[in-house]
Each structure stands twice: as C-alpha cells, then as structure tokens.
From TrEMBL:
Residues 1-20 form the signal peptide. It comes from the Bacteria. InterPro entries: OMP/PagP_B-barrel. Keywords: Signal. The keyword Signal applies. This is Outer membrane protein beta-barrel domain-containing protein.
Length: 192
C-alpha cells in the first residue's frame, strides 16, 4: 500500500510540474513606445512598396519600391533621402524602368497618437528618370501615413498621398497621381 501511495504521489507531482512549465506565447503585435523611437539623434531605415497593380484591360503590371533613410534633427522631425524605383510591364511593349532620388522631410504629429502608433506627414522633392525617356524630370510627393510600432524599434507603415513625375516624357505618360504604399521602418537609437 505504501508503494502504491508513493507511486500515485509521484505521478500527481509529475503532472502538476508539467502543467506549471507550460508556456503559452503569442506573437507581439504592438509595443508601448511613446516618443522613444522618434527622439532627436535617432535614425530610421526602411522602405515601402506601393502602387502595386495589374490592369486587365491594358494588360499592364506595375510596382514601385522606395528604400529610405533619415535622421531625426529634433523630436518628431526627420530629414533623409529615398530612392524611387519603379517597374511597369505592358503586353507587347518594352518594359519601363523608372528611377529617382528624393530628399524628404517627415513630421510625426503629436495629436491623435496612441501608445503604439503615430500619424505622420511626409513631403519630398527630387529628380526622376525613365528607361524610355532621355530627360530627367522633377519629382514631387506629399503623403500622410500611420506608423504602428510592433516593437520598440520596428514599425509597420501605411502611406497615402499624391506623387508627381513626368520621368518618361517620350513615352507620353508619367507616374503622377494618388497612391497607396505599405512598408516598414527600423528606428535606431543615436548617440546622446
């Protein structure tokens, strides 16, 4: 009887021990960051993908990629540069490659912010070119967006706005119009 009681106590203890060590984790979807990532002296590196689309009528596919890097000159205000890289494939026509570089200014609004996200506005002015045109054109952009911080240093972003460029003048069309982009930024702390 003693052996049976001892055996039952060991089985019961083992069962409780395995239940106590069971760890359930869920992926992190937001972080309470406040102003930490957008403080003066910090860096931001990342990019966005925008204007992805396919036209069934014109049999045209297009995509734009914008890698960027910036430096916070003061809390919530960053200056930087971004590359503008685009590709358009049209059936029975040569592919069109667009390129450009644009300095930008980005401001994170203090109002309407949450503990894990910030609204921002971004403006840029630069130059752009195209594989179908020999001329270089002015490129302008005015966008608003929202950055949702999933960790202390990484944010997912969505931006919408107006971008203007007549880079492929010889082809008769440009990249002007309203656009939507999604991307991410990594916020690196600077020296203080």
């Amino acid at each position: 009887m003693k052996k049976f009681t001892l055996l039952m106590a060991l089985v019961g203890g083992f069962t409780l021990t395995t239940q106590a060590q069971r760890v359930e984790t869920t992926p992190q979807t937001s972080a309470n960051v406040g102003l930490t990532p957008i403080k003066q002296g910090n860096w931001m590196i990342g990019g966005s993908v925008g204007n992805i689309g396919y036209s069934f009528e014109g049999k045209k596919f297009g995509i734009n990629i914008n890698p960027r890097a910036g430096y916070f000159i003061t809390d919530g205000l960053a200056l930087g540069a971004q590359a503008n890289l685009g590709f358009a494939a049209v059936k029975d026509v040569d592919n069109v490659y667009n390129y450009g570089i644009s300095p930008f200014v980005r401001y994170y609004f203090p109002g309407g912010a949450s503990a894990s996200g910030r609204f921002f506005g971004q403006g840029d002015v630069g130059i752009a070119g195209s594989s179908q045109g020999s001329d270089v054109s002015l490129a302008l952009g005015a966008n608003v967006g929202y950055a949702h911080f999933i960790t202390q240093t990484v944010a997912l972003e969505v931006m919408a706005g107006y971008n203007y460029s007549k880079a492929n003048v010889n082809a008769g069309n440009g990249q002007s119009g309203l656009g939507l982009a999604v991307g991410f930024q990594i916020y690196l702390p600077g020296k203080r």
